[in-house]
Design goal:
Dihydrofolate Reductase, subunit A, eight-stranded mixed β-sheet, two-stranded antiparallel ribbon, 4 helices, 28% strand
């Protein structure tokens, strides 16, 4: 069964970027520390990354995050989704209008202009098709940014929440949960490493 999994790195004080994120500045001041675990040689970090990307049938992201990853300082062959762990899933971007051009033309991009629920529905269809082709269950992964995951959380679209809690206090940036609707979570897994604490919750 295809699940909707929100998967994002977060600081100890609840930020998913540092101050001043954008296409030219990436994750903002200090924000790169949130993803230290994704480039770690720790075997548990590598396993978390490998398993997370292996289950990805389609990936949803917001326009601001797309502008960062497709920007001049964004993804490349060594820092793209999954950092080379798996094949490349379909990417679905929630946006008010598609970009005029795309730098990362080697990836499968779909731009949905009718809202987040439609983007998730589109991604679910792509993930289910990929599941059928591969013969294994694949999921939709909401990789961010924070506003996209927060909106999906509020709308009841998320089945599983995975947080990579980085040992850093950013002080400011993009918050994940400020002002969000209450939700009950059931903790399913905790994996501590030297670079992050990987937390998995079922969302009720």
């Amino acid at each position: 069964m295809t699940r909707i999994i929100a998967d994002i790195s977060v600081s100890l004080d609840g930020f998913v970027t540092g101050p001043g994120p954008g296409p030219e500045t990436g994750l903002g001041t200090g924000g790169e520390a949130l993803h230290t675990w994704a480039f770690s040689d720790d075997p548990d970090d590598r396993r978390v990354l490998r398993e997370a990307t292996a289950r990805s049938g389609a990936v949803v992201l917001g326009r601001r995050l797309f502008d960062v990853v497709d920007g001049p300082n964004g993804w490349d062959d060594e820092t793209g989704y999954g950092a080379g762990e798996v094949g490349r899933p379909a990417f679905v971007v929630v946006t008010s209008s598609p970009p005029e051009s795309v730098r990362l033309t080697g990836l499968d991009w779909t731009f949905v202009t009718t809202g987040l629920p439609d983007a998730v529905t589109t991604a679910r269809g792509r993930a289910e098709a990929a599941s059928s082709d591969s013969g294994k269950d694949l999921d939709v992964v909401l990789m961010g940014g924070g506003a996209t995951i927060g909106s999906a959380f509020d709308a009841g679209l998320v089945d599983v929440l995975t947080l990579h809690l980085a040992p850093v206090v950013l002080g400011a940036g993009t918050p994940l949960f400020t002002g969000r609707a209450p939700r009950t979570l059931v903790q399913r897994d905790v994996i501590p490493t030297s670079t992050a604490t990987h937390l998995t919750y079922d969302v009720l």
